[in-house]
Amino acid sequence: MNTRLAKARASLSLPQRVTRAREMLANCEMCEWRCGADRTRGESAPCRLGRESFVFNRYMSLTEEPEVRPAVRVYLGGCNFRCRFCDTAPACFEATSGQRVDPKVLAGELAAAVESGAKSISVLGGEPTIHLHTLLELAEASARHLPLAINTNLYMTAEVIDLLDGVVSLYLADFKFGNDACARRLASVPHYFEAVTRNLLRIDGKTPMIVRHLLMPGHMACCFRPVVDWLSCHLPGARFQLYTGFVPCYRAKDDPTISRLNSRREIQEAVDYLKGKNLNWDAGSDGQTREQ
Predict the structure, then answer these.
(1) How many distinct structural domains can be found in the chain?
(2) Residues 6 or more apart whose Cβ sits within 8 Å of residue 74
(3) What range does the domain containing 48 cover?
(4) Do the Cβ atoms of 95 and 78 come closer than 8 Å?
(5) From CA 202, how far away is CA 195, in angstroms rounded?
(6) How far apart are alpha carbons 30 and 53 in whole angstroms?
(7) For all residues of the chain together, what is the average pLDDT?
(8) Are strands 239-243 and 99-100 parallel, antiparallel or unpaired?
(9) To bridge 25 with a disulfide, which of 39, 187, 195, 198 should be the other Cys (CB 3.0-4.6 Å)?
(10) What is the domain-level CATH number for residue 156?
(11) Domain for residue 278, yes or no?
């Protein structure tokens, strides 16, 4: 990790960060695809994003972790993954569906929601970090600090994390897969495990983080256990949320391993496994945390 470069990026003023993020659009390397697409000219990219961001859903939520709720959930269209089990697909893949973001207008509305009692602004997708410029523009446009909680698949590049340092209040980090083979088959992304673990280590100690894992049927040995083992070894004591309420959404029904719900046996096996690990964990089906 280049700590000198990270500190230099973090020392940039907010307007300087906005400028840098806009520059990145012309040769995009915001995520691990590092596709180099010129998003200012509409060149093809895995995420299908261009210069602008669009909100395709927004509402107040009471179903996330207590560190977050009540939260205003803001869904930005466009994603660098194609998860077969995505519960917001296909809407989240449409980069220009919904209302175009005017940073000044949206920042004002979100600030008003915080004034009215929202604890956080939970930004989802798709993948929010490929909207780096928009996130920074919202922060710059707001008259007050926006408590941004970023729901991320952790596939961003190091520069994105550095530019968001001090802007993001909390990462809700999805550690989806325990190996590259499952990531390729179920989400169509390469080099997954190395990128995600690198980014977890880079975020740790800089920004508060909750690591989430969705327990998938048939993926106990290949995904759940490796995720838990890595966290217990490299980030002992990390805040970990296990989601057990998997539902075969989108195209999951076409996959033989994830076309069903988790069994009671699988859920109990996962909970029992966590009891032996050095993690600050909770388990639940709906985002409500439960003391263990």
Answers:
(1) 1
(2) 55, 58, 106, 110, 121, 122, 123, 124
(3) 3-284
(4) yes
(5) 11
(6) 14
(7) 95
(8) unpaired
(9) 39
(10) 3.20.20.70
(11) yes
pLDDT attached to residue 286 = 54
Distance CA(82)–CA(10), nearest Å, equals: 31
Render pLDDT for 160-203 as a digit per residue (tens, 0 to 9). Answer: 999 999 999 999 999 999 999 999 999 999 999 999 999 999 99
| Rounded Cα gap, residues 91 and 40, in angstroms | 22
| Residue 156 DSSP label | B
Look at residue 291 and tell me whether its pLDDT is greater than 50. Answer: no
The reply to whether the predicted model has a pTM over 0.90 is yes
Give CA–CA dist 25/10, Å, rounded.
Answer: 19
**Tokens coding 41:** 């000219």
Give, in degrees to the nearest 5, the angle at Cα 151 between 149 and 156.
110
CA distance 122 to 71: 6
Residue 291: inside a domain: no
Q: What is the pLDDT of residues 114-167, one digit of tens each?
A: 999 999 999 999 999 999 999 999 999 999 999 999 999 999 999 999 999 999
Give the pLDDT confidence of 232-281 residue by residue, as tens digits: 999 999 999 999 999 999 999 999 999 999 999 999 999 999 999 999 99
pLDDT for res 213: 98
- Strand extents, DSSP E, the chain: 54-61, 71-76, 99-100, 120-124, 148-152, 168-174, 209-214, 239-243, 280-284
Asked if residue 112 belongs to a domain, the reply is yes
For residues 64 and 71, the answer to whether their CB atoms sit within 8 Å is: yes
The span from the CA of 22 to the CA of 64, in Å, is 31
Residue 282: phi and psi, rounded to 5, are -140, 160
- How far apart are alpha carbons 242 and 286 in whole angstroms? 10
pLDDT of amino acid 10: 75
Q: How far is CA 102 from CA 30, 62, 122, in A?
A: 21, 26, 18
CB atoms within 10 A of CB 246: 21
